Known about the structure:
This protein is an all-alpha fold. It has one domain. It has ten helices and two strands. Helix 3 runs antiparallel to helix 8, helix 3 runs parallel beside helix 10 and helix 6 packs antiparallel against helix 7. The chain is globular, with a radius of gyration of 22 Å. The termini are far apart.
Amino acid sequence: xxxxxxxxxxxxxxxxxxxxxxxxxxxxxxxxxxxxxxxxxxxxxxxxxxxxxxxxxxxxxxxxxxxxxxxxxxxxxxxxxxxxxxxxxxxxxxxxxxxxxxxxxxxxxxxxxxxxxxxxxxxxxxxxxxxxxxxxxxxxxxxxxxxxxxxxxxxxxxxxxxxxxxxxxxxxxxxxxxxxxxxxxxxxxxxxxxxxxxxxxxxxxxxxxxxxxxxxxxxxxxxxxxxxxxxxxxxxxxxxxxxxxxxxxxxxxxxxxxxxxxxxxxx
Length: 267
């Protein structure tokens, strides 16, 4: 028997019902809410580690590298298999780009991890070139009339924004390859400033709010479904781990400051 509340509950719009009928189901394992929040928290952890000393910064670099490479491997695999939608790529690639850029070896401390970070950034840059020149046409499209990105305003992924990113991607990969070729000679110098990693990280600070806005608005404007809840283990575990990592680095940084003050007092 129908009740008064029954029909009303059926007619009540839910967030999913308000999305356009052409909206796609996003790849939550790549950029679901838990994944995105864990990466945003990791940005903060990088800042904390950078000002807490090289030892902590080296640890976070390794963690970021593993996380970013795992995402890139899935992106490459899903692109080859045709499971990825074209409009999803800028969201994922921007998250990874800021991750890797924030932990780039400066002029500096070159180590095996540093070289691997450069290799990962080069792979990401090469994929970005392919995406804007060919991938945008090769990967799946939604049934919507247009697909959008955030660039201080709502813009189409195509037209001038695509041309802009073609140029940006080309300059990006040239810059990465140049740094890789030059870094050996720089690292071998005796008068290298070994504290530049702090300036490197803080210089990227303004890009963090841009990245968050670009990712969240692209998801909203394209009506991407199933990426805005933490309803699975795959979303919850990365988020909990990243929060735990941030708390650990905060504690380690505070303890280091306290120990330094104790040493100064004893002196």
